[in-house]
Amino acid sequence: MRVLPKRLFQIVLVSLLVAGGTAQAQNQPLRTAVDANFPPHAFTRLDGKLDGFQIDLGTELGRRLGREVQVDGTNFAGLIPALNAGRYDFILAPVTATTERAENLFLTEGYLFTAYQFGIRRGSAPITGVGDLRGKIIAVNKGSAYDGWTRENAERYGFTPLVLDTFTDATLAVVQNRAYAQLGGNTTIRYAAQRNRQFTADLVLRDTRAHWSLVARRGDTAMREMLENALECMKLDGTLAKLSEKWFGTAPEADDAERVAFPGYGVPGLPGYDPAPHTPRCN
């Protein structure tokens, strides 16, 4: 039997240990988290388990990556600090892609567009543009971005804001004819319409559209590319569109983020974007 020289033996041993460590790391669960009080994206069921669009998305990501995805339910404010501290490998909660976030984190391309949308009572005349708001009462939940929009634009467009404590209160104000429309996020408005037959989703303010991204630590190129590859494959085979329709009630349009595999890695036009072309590696 041939005996390896001592130095060569050490090199082979180290190589085996490194390879073993890499394989073990690749088999470790991916740790992530969601805001557990944001239906239909994530919420806690009566049995204590998490449910929602993000949970289904995490399950599908794990299936495609061949790794378990462990999801914590927590508050949104603590997610990014926990990611940067190494507690999580990526953030599964919907995160709006902004310049500030892109300067400090690695964002994937959007898997959904977040946008401002109006909801109206079923049977009411549709809103064709913001000019139709004149003389109307528009309900919003207090402290939200939509509350801010109505305060900034009420005088300009001639409507009256009705500011209420919760999103649900604003929906009920429309159903009960105390307000003509509710302004909220597109996914939550569509979800409310799915659950309340007297309420229907209406005009989307398309100029407010922004990417909702998965988030990795700044510099973690491998994690971002792995997540984005899985997302693009889910877009190309229609899985994301099906999840969207399941949770939000309507099929995405052809130019919605659920159906568009954007070029490069990250969000085009934002810091950290890598324009290098690539072809998704789908099973």
From TrEMBL:
Q: What is this protein called?
A: Transporter substrate-binding domain-containing protein
Q: Name one Pfam family in it.
A: SBP_bac_3
| Keywords recorded for this protein, A-Z | Signal
Residue span of the signal peptide, if any? Answer: 1-25
Q: Which SMART domains match?
A: PBPb
Q: Which Gene3D superfamilies match?
A: Periplasmic binding protein-like II (3.40.190.10)
Entry keyword Repeat: no
Instruction: Indicate the segments forming the Solute-binding protein family 3/N-terminal domain, all copies.
Output: 29-251
Query: What InterPro entries does the record tag this protein with?
Result: Solute-binding_3/MltF_N
Q: Which organism is it from?
A: Roseomonas populi
- Where does the chain cross the membrane? none
* Domain of life assignment: Bacteria
Q: Does the keyword Signal apply?
A: yes
